[in-house]
Amino acid sequence: VQLVEAGGGPGQAGGSLRLSCTAPGFTSNNCDMSWYRQAAGKQREWVSSISTVDSTFYAESVKGRFAITKDNVKDTVYLQMNSLKPEDTAMYSCSGSGIPWCNHWGQGTQVTVS
Q1: Which member of 25, 81, 88, 110 has the greatest number of CB atoms within 10 A?
Q2: 101 to 9, 32, 37, 97: CA distances (angstroms)
Q3: How far apart, in whole angstroms, are the C-alpha atoms of residue 46 and residue 38?
């Protein structure tokens, strides 16, 4: 199973970016999906999650600015990032959780905010 993130790149402070994570089979396997990020020299941190019943959860640092959604038909999870800050600069990765089959990670997509 390969998770593929996209949508990263340079962003301006105050601007927006939308990340996507294509995760074939994750809907049919009832996986919860999450976004994590890791800034250079720092530990990976959890950003947001969405459950199989569309409950959403956010880290305090992004609450009110980021929104996680998913398209079950496309097996794709999105992270809409608004009001970007330089401290949002990081490698963003998605992962699944639930049954053991769900436990996969993508390669990540770099977000750089200046």
Answers
A1: 81
A2: 30, 11, 22, 8
A3: 9
Q: What is the pLDDT of residue 88?
A: 98
Give the pLDDT means over successive 10-residue stretches in the chain (114 positions).
92 97 93 97 97 97 98 96 98 95 94 98
Q: What whole-number distance in Å separates Cα of residue 40 and Cα of residue 61?
A: 17
d(CA 102, CA 88): 26
Residue type, 114: S
The predicted pLDDT at position 1 comes to 74
Amino acid at 28: S
Q: How far is CA 21 from CA 5, 95, 114, in A?
A: 4, 9, 24
Identify the pLDDT of residue 63.
Answer: 98
CA dist 112 and 31 (Å) reads: 29
